[in-house]
What we know:
- The structure is a single chain.
- The chain is mainly beta and 80 residues long.
- 12% of the residues lie in helices and 36% in strands.
- It has one helix spanning 23-32; strands at 8-11, 35-41, 47-54, 60-66, 74-76.
- Strands 4-3-2-1-5 form a 5-stranded antiparallel β-sheet.
- The chain is globular and about 35 Å long.
Amino acid sequence: MNLKVGDHIYITNIPESCSAENVEIFQQLIIKKRTVRIYWIDRYGRPWYRIKFKRIDGKLEDHSIPISGSDTNWVLVQSK
Length: 80
């Protein structure tokens, strides 16, 4: 499936390629059932989404994460 800028997806599980430092980010997305929006397609055709969390100290934490062609940990949110 080809994602485009503006598409919204749900993260359904932690990808196999996930680094240990990002596991908690994916767990929060899954638990909270948050959608994320594709905001950029890079020159290799990979869609990227951005995640912002408020930390315990009140500061925002911002992560940009690409979707590789082999990732199956997401589903497209159908537009109404």
